[in-house]
Description:
Elements: H1 4-14, H2 19-26, H3 30-38, H4 47-60, H5 65-78, H6 95-105, H7 108-140
Helix pairs in contact: 1-3, 2-3, 4-5
Amino acid sequence: xxxxxxxxxxxxxxxxxxxxxxxxxxxxxxxxxxxxxxxxxxxxxxxxxxxxxxxxxxxxxxxxxxxxxxxxxxxxxxxxxxxxxxxxxxxxxxxxxxxxxxxxxxxxxxxxxxxxxxxxxxxxxxxxxxxxxxxxxxxxxxxxxxxxxxxxxxxxxxxxxxxxxxxxxxxxxxxxxxxxxxx
Length: 183
């Protein structure tokens, strides 16, 4: 039985398409299409890319991709680099990794309204507690002790009249001055 690459090349040549035509449709370079046809799968980072490109290649050529992918999996098992899918994270998962994984698994359609309801309840509770504390302080009369001492400071540019400057004798109305005369 011919290899996957031989089957793809034969179907491509039979339909009169070039490597560039296939690469343009697959959105990859022509040398990667040639690598698929030659079975040089080490040019690809992971087997998932190879499988995806082969499936798309079969769709372009109107081939049934199921038997081709089964044969491809057998061929990929023979390559050392692509026998297994690479690990996504080579090291130990940290707190942020675990947190983001947890958050992606949360059913937000249930939890988001619940969290909003809890937040509203907490705000209402805090406002009621603050109002209650204010009412208790007003009723107890302790708030008077906390007031600052009062001191009158006249506004600037205001005429200051000091009582000490007035003469001891009463002022007699002057007959020559009608404004000082009593009515």
